[in-house]
Design a protein that fits this description.
9 strands, globular, alpha+beta, 9-stranded antiparallel sheet, 197 residues, 27% helix
């Protein structure tokens, strides 16, 4: 700067951009600091909604579920179907080709959400909802860190859960662990023993 002129050596006024950038950067930092805790709270609330939905499934007096597992190298997916009626569960046995009637204990009901307790959902987000069977649902995406195939290894398993807006119970789950794709559908109305099917 030329002495006593307030101008640079080329005779131009010095740039004031750095002075303007500093307050803007500070403001952006304050905005981010205000937003990030809100995002963390939203993620926690969405994860809590997923956990509550699985607990609601275990508390349901009756429900029908169909689990489909698609594994690479298998021509057909594995299907497991269950009809839970109070303290009884009717499960299909694909190997035997028949239905099996088994007791449904309180411990087995608690085990329905055991996977979420052992491997809690993370990075949960509520997405655009929709309808399943004419009922409004909320859609949540999340991920779980599950044990891997090697000793001490782990892998991420992304999942999506559709939860009924009216009662908070899950209606559909889609997930993937490695190359294995899993779909679970659940309904609660008109559940009856599957004999004759």
């Amino acid at each position: 700067m030329a002495p006593g002129t307030g101008r640079g050596a080329g005779g131009t006024a010095p740039s004031r951009a750095p002075a303007r950038v500093r307050p803007a950067a500070a403001l952006a930092g304050l905005v981010l600091a205000a937003l990030l805790p809100g995002a963390a709270r939203a993620t926690e609330a969405d994860c809590a909604a997923i956990t509550a939905a699985m607990q609601a499934l275990g508390a349901a007096e009756q429900f029908h579920s169909l689990l489909t597992v698609q594994t690479p190298g298998r021509r057909r997916p594995v299907r497991q179907e269950r009809f839970v009626l109070g303290d009884v569960v009717y499960a299909n046995s694909p190997a035997a080709g028949r239905w099996v009637k088994l007791p449904m204990t309180a411990a087995e009901r608690q085990a329905l959400g055991a996977g979420l307790v052992a491997y809690p959902p993370q990075d949960c987000h509520e997405e655009a909802g929709g309808e399943i069977g004419g009922a409004a649902v909320r859609l949540y995406s999340f991920r779980q860190v599950l044990p891997g195939t090697g000793e001490g290894s782990s892998s991420e398993a992304p999942g999506r859960l559709w939860v009924a807006a009216a009662d908070g119970r899950p209606r559909r789950y889609e997930g993937q662990h490695g190359e294995v794709q899993v779909t679970l559908t659940i309904d609660y109305d008109g559940v009856a023993p599957p004999y004759g099917q």
